[in-house]
Amino acid sequence: MPAGRFAPSPSGELHVGNLRTALLAWLFARSTGREFLLRVEDLDRARAGAEAEQLRDLAAIGLDWDGDVVRQTDRLAGFDAAFGRLSDAGLLYECFCSRRDIAEAPRAPHAAPGSYPGTCRALSEAERADRRRTRPAAWRLRAEAEEFTVTDALAGAYTGVVDDFVIRRNDGTFAYNFAVVVDDALQGVDQVVRGDDLLPSTPRQAYLAGLLGVPLPEYAHVPLVLNAAGQRLAKRDGAVTLADLSAPRTVDAVEYDAVTAARVRDVLLASLGLPQGPLAQAVDAFDPAALPREPWVLDSPSATFASARTR
Ligand code: GLU
């Protein structure tokens, strides 16, 4: 069964920007007859209790999902197997660089900013043995491409950097760019909808999918929600989680009533040009081609989500 998914990192409560991305992932999946899967990306950045809060809030705005929630930490065997395949194919090498080593390394004039300069790619076995004594190794991909092009439902053809990116960190944790590809393949995900901050990572992920011989999903990278300063919305912007909004509050001397999850759902739907109310109507009306292509600027969350009565 083809499937879409939402894959939050359980580092804290979801804010309305995260909820809007989840709503979009759900709409893309449901409007195309797909299953919708939830995956908790808990390889790192997990905070106790955050997963339960996130699931509660997704359900509160009307999202449902198929099957059990999958946690990455329950699937380490799948990562080990894929890692073994890359290793057996000679596609991995040990890297002993610190962040500082990478920042200070000489690079070719045409090297993409931030790309790995290849310092540890050609170490001899004796050099590696020597370095293992001072620092545990991370594992990098021996990439044979410098860039790769993906097709995105909203961005069209997108070409981005592929470098020798980290597959496994030197604390043993599998890196996001690797885990996401393995997880999506193991779960049969053929539609990846997520925030467009991840578009620059997508060429690396698609290139890796090719090396692992797994099918490429369809991609749709959706615009983010920004704060008044034009930065990605964050918890510090205030009154941006369902829990914050569910309490009456005073902001800039204006009193605001508690906001229900249904109201949040409706404001998010309106921001997408979709009919408000229970999500069945939004599924029928959903047309990716008609989605806003610009970020949604939320300059005053309390005012934006205030119910019609208080406004
Ligand atoms: N866990 C990632 C995040 O919360 C998203 C991963 C993805 O959708 O590919 O930023």
Automatic annotation (TrEMBL):
Residues annotated to bind Zn(2+): 95, 97, 116, 120
Gene Ontology CC annotations of this record: cytosol
Gene Ontology molecular function: any one: glutamate-tRNA ligase activity
Cofactor(s) required, per the database record: Zn(2+)
Swiss-Prot/TrEMBL keywords: Aminoacyl-tRNA synthetase, ATP-binding, Ligase, Metal-binding, Nucleotide-binding, Protein biosynthesis, Zinc
Top-tier EC class: ligase
Segments carrying motif 'KMSKS' region: 232-236
Residues the entry annotates as binding L-glutamate: 5-9, 41, 176, 194
UniProt-listed Enzyme Commission number(s): 6.1.1.-
Sequence motif 'HIGH' region, residues: 8-18
Family: Belongs to the class-I aminoacyl-tRNA synthetase family. GluQ subfamily.
UniProt-recorded name of the protein: Glutamyl-Q tRNA(Asp) synthetase
Organism, scientific name: Zhihengliuella flava
